[in-house]
Amino acid sequence: MLFKSNGPALLPPPDDLTIPQFMLDSFHPARPVREDHSPWLIDDQSGKSYHYEQIRMRVHGLANGLTSRWHLKNDDVVCIYSPNNIEYPIAIWACHRIGAIVSGANPSYTVDELVYQLKTSRATILITHPVSLPVAREAARITGLSPSNIILLEPTSSGRQEFAFIEELATEGLTFPKSLYVEPRLRSGEGKTKIAFLSFSSGTTGSPKAVAIPHYAPISNVLQMATYQEVNQYQKPREKRRFRPGDVCIAVLPFYHIYGLVVNLHWMIFSGLSIVVVPKFNFIEMLKSIERHKITHLMLVPPQIVLLCKTFFQQPETRKYDLSRLRYCMVGAAPLSAELSLQFEKLLPNVVLAQGYGMTETSTTVTMLPSTEPRGIAGCAGRLISGTEAKVLKPDGSLAGYDEEGELMVKGPQNALRYQNNEKATKETFIDGWVRTGDEVLIKENGNVYIVDRLKEIFKVRGFQVAPAELEGHLLEHPDVADCAVIGVPDEYSGDVPLAFVTLTGDAAKRVKENPAEGDRIKASIKKHVSDVKVKYKWLEGGVEFIDAIPKNPSGKLLRRLLRDQAKAIIAKRAQASKAKL
């Protein structure tokens, strides 16, 4: 069957605007009126802020500067390789003013990884931060990009400025009496094909792919979320409105990632909130920021929720920070277990915990908690947002109905166009206007969507499906487990059996270091923790392995392929030990 959103009707999104024209130049009835004193962007540490007119002028100046020095033009690709920075959105919108395409890169990339993105996106300009400059310079050298095509978001601390930087270019650009660039004026429908971003997929199941996202898609998604959350409903009392002009949202999610880019940055600004820009996530520093800036809204990923819950319950000194202004926390990018949801609500009972679901290929949001629901249901990813359709494909190719599991397919104005220069992958994922997500879901009759797991992460034990997320949520309740990941490993009898990689809490790690035999006791305890409450085929027959840190990308998704590689070595070592005993 076909599933449709039961939320408020979506007005047709504008299909003749670029993103900065939508954000900076135009009015939309779904957009609330921002409070005059409310800045758009705030630098976390310095407190420096940019208001609307400052941003608009700065974007124009930078667009002029880029055109003057590099003759940047329509459809050129600019790669931004940097942690979050208050100048990051300025750089995005300035490039879009010219008609250029932006490709955000993970600032923790190695040289080889950045080289891959530069080559795949065919970037001609590289914008970076001084802390990322050494890797950026080497990647530029390997790809043949001239050092003169590297631009810094802010000047180096050395005082010797070898590279141009944003402040310099924006100031220089404002000295010209007129625009040096020709801003795109799109015809009706052209926004649906004019590329704004080449955002790279997470790479959890292979090499990252460049997702071609047109201007129309993020604009549509911002309007879909604004409509669904009724951010412009002034008839509601202020205290009952979930998003209000004057509220403050933290931005610890990276802007290069689609969640941080569309939801945390563009949608929150559109909704009248100020964004506190944080360069890099640090738990204690985040608590300080929440107190310092009187943060009301959080946008997080499950690992940050894990850290929040575990640290608050185990380290009482963290409770000295004032979190009383917090009212809303959205969690996305990976499933959040029911156990973690309940822990969070126990910790912060006055904060609405709202799960959402989306992906780069749907730029971004597909489901979220409706504005009519006072709080989320543990383990539920919300409901389809306005303007979104879905169908659930069962393994035999037939369409699922209510309460039947299958692969989620999504259709809506937020969908990306394709994987750039990858026809094979495009045909597998983008099918007749639908995006094939690769995620197994179940949809209830009331519209609630439950993400079962990534299809490629699900494994079978003696013919029974095992979803790693279920076991991981349970393992996190064990007092010695700080973080964990479960994968299936080959077994001659069962096909696959569950193996748990576990990061120990500080106290448990200390005990193991002082007495190695304690490690065996903890492993046995963890296994019993599962076998006491789970059906037998979900028991950890593959064992428990301690690991210093669970590998994840910055969006919070587990990099299970790396764990599978480690598991192969572990299994081989076990086999050798078994032979030696014989």
Automatic annotation (TrEMBL):
Return the CDD domains for the record.
Answer: Firefly_Luc_like (cd05911)
Q: Where is the AMP-binding enzyme C-terminal domain?
A: 470-557
One Pfam family here: AMP-binding
The residue ranges of the AMP-dependent synthetase/ligase domain are 40-419
Where does the record place a coiled coil? none
Top-level lineage group: Eukaryota
- GO: which molecular function terms? CoA-ligase activity
Protein name, entry field: Acetyl-CoA synthetase-like protein
Question: What organism is recorded for this protein?
Answer: Sistotremastrum suecicum HHB10207 ss-3
List the lineage, top down: Eukaryota, Fungi, Dikarya, Basidiomycota, Agaricomycotina
